[in-house]
Design goal:
By secondary structure, the protein is of the alpha/beta class. It has two domains: 108 residues, Rossmann fold (3-Layer(aba) Sandwich), CATH 3.40.50.11850; 104 residues, Diphthamide synthesis DPH1/DPH2 domain 3 (Rossmann fold). It is built from nine helices and nine strands. The strands form two sheets. Strands 2-1-3-4-5 form a five-stranded mixed sheet, sandwiched between helices. A four-stranded parallel sheet has the order 7-6-8-9. Helix 5 packs across helix 9. The protein starts with a helix and ends in a 17-residue tail after the last helix. The mean pLDDT is 90.
């Protein structure tokens, strides 16, 4: 009934997404949307995604797999991080439906605010002469090969780059590194949610590419940890 109440605010071709705790809501939501004359789609992610329609903060391949079929996404759940990850990566509008309260809202305002913060970090990265590329030693977040590529990329521009392995990333653990900016190859949520905790710019790998002039500003993408 709660979803039926907000149907007038939804489009025609809708992709359904959820985190694992709300995946059980997807079949019912699909039935409601289809009964209203809408087309509902649920995508399969890569090998890191266990269930159709599931999104992780660092992996939204279930959203990408149906991007060509949908006009917008309906994320079933709470919070902003997971739907924002899908919004940045898929390039389609996304609405958040809270199945507990029945609230339907857009993430556009939050998305724009986050983008302003990220662009400020990129500008800081453009001015940096030295970088610390951080590799997380945790299973599922260790992207050492990518880190090596980033180190080579930085050095190819005449800047200085170092690489460090960490199990826990925190401002305290970085205090003694004398660099101008950090690059985090671990969960992108660290750069997105915790950036204000760090005294220097904390970039994701795609943001580093923008800062170095390798990627265009208009080609900004959300960092993802996929099975590739």
């Amino acid at each position: 009934e709660k979803l039926e109440a907000v149907l007038p605010e939804l489009g025609l071709n809708i992709g359904l997404l959820a985190t694992v705790q709300y995946l059980n809501c997807i079949p019912q939501a699909m039935d409601i949307l289809q009964e209203s004359g809408r087309n509902a789609f649920v995508g399969d992610g890569d090998a890191r995604i266990m269930y159709p329609g599931q999104v992780l903060g660092c992996n939204c391949t279930a959203a990408y797999s149906i991007a060509d079929s949908v006009d917008e996404y309906l994320y079933i759940g709470e919070g902003d991080f997971h739907p924002l990850a899908a919004a940045f990566g898929a390039g389609k509008p996304i609405k958040v439906f809270n199945p507990v309260t029945g609230e339907l809202r857009s993430v556009d305002e939050v998305r724009d605010r986050i983008l302003r913060r990220r662009f400020a970090a990129i500008v800081g990265g453009q001015e940096a002469k030295s970088f610390l590329v951080i590799v997380c030693s945790k299973v599922g977040q260790n992207r050492n090969e990518l880190a090596d590529e980033l180190v080579r990329m930085i050095r190819s521009t005449g800047r200085t780059a170092y690489k460090v392995f960490m199990n826990e990333l925190s401002p305290q653990n970085l205090l003694h590194y004398r660099v101008d900016a950090y690059v985090c190859t671990a969960c992108p949520r660290i750069a997105m949610d915790d950036a204000l905790r760090y005294d220097r710019p904390m970039l994701t790998p795609p943001e580093l590419e923008v800062a170095l002039g390798i990627r265009e500003w208009d080609d900004y993408v959300f960092d993802q940890i996929t099975s590739d």
